[in-house]
Amino acid sequence: MAISEPIKVALIDDQILFRKSLVNILNFMGSIQVILEDTSGITFIEYLESGQVAPDVLLLDLQLPDMDGIAVTKQIKEKFPDHPLKIIILSSHPQERYATHLLDLGANGYLSKDCEPKEVIKAIEDVYSKGIYFTKSLRDALKDHHEKQIPSLDNTALLTDREKDIVLCVCDEMGSREIAEKLSISVKTVETHRNNIMHKLGTKSISGVILYAVRMGWVVL
């Protein structure tokens, strides 16, 4: 992945050996820079509130001593609804147990702590450039989860044909630049459409847009 500046990452995890090892791996990459590491979800929220240099991506442990990853994700989305921060949950639990709920809340990815380092790197790069990262097991979990849901048609008519085109491109894991090239529009126009879509669908993340498309039967995971 070619980038002009390193992707700024924060890592919040209370397992010291795991955290320190992952920080060393990520900083070694050159294309990724860990600007904050801590054990506390509350400390991270206070960091965002302080107005200091914000990370592009947050690697967030699901289980923390002061506030779990679900609560941290909810607070971030409630307190900073327009913040471009991408959230990847790190967990020892099976993806199907928590992942769908966290994606509904606005998380951008979900990784098992026993995954390979190269998968963590790919997840960071994907959520940074495309807004979402799906593993095969997460796709399967989402498919099983949403096959049980009854689609709601309430918001379908609100989306224009162009907005539906954008949704389908997002579901193909295309970034804004790729979408702009495919549809012959500017990157700024793509971003405007994405924001309008999220507002219309009442979701705070690209994850929610994809889940909506699944519910509507527009795409199959």
Provide a descriptive summary of the structure in words.
There is one protein chain. The protein has helices at about 15-30, 40-50, 70-80, 95-105, 115-130, 135-145, 160-170, 175-185, 185-200, 205-215; strands at about 5-10, 30-40, 55-60, 85-90, 110. It has a 5-stranded parallel β-sheet with strand order 2-1-3-4-5, with helices on both faces. It contains 10 helices and 5 strands; from the N terminus they run E-H-E-H-E-H-E-H-E-H-H-H-H-H-H. The chain is globular. The protein has 2 domains: about 5-145, Response regulator (Rossmann fold, 3-Layer(aba) Sandwich), CATH 3.40.50; about 150-215, Winged helix-like DNA-binding domain superfamily/Winged helix DNA-binding domain (Arc Repressor Mutant, subunit A, Orthogonal Bundle). Helices cover about 50% and strands about 15% of the residues. It is α/β, with parallel strands linked by helices and about 220 residues long.
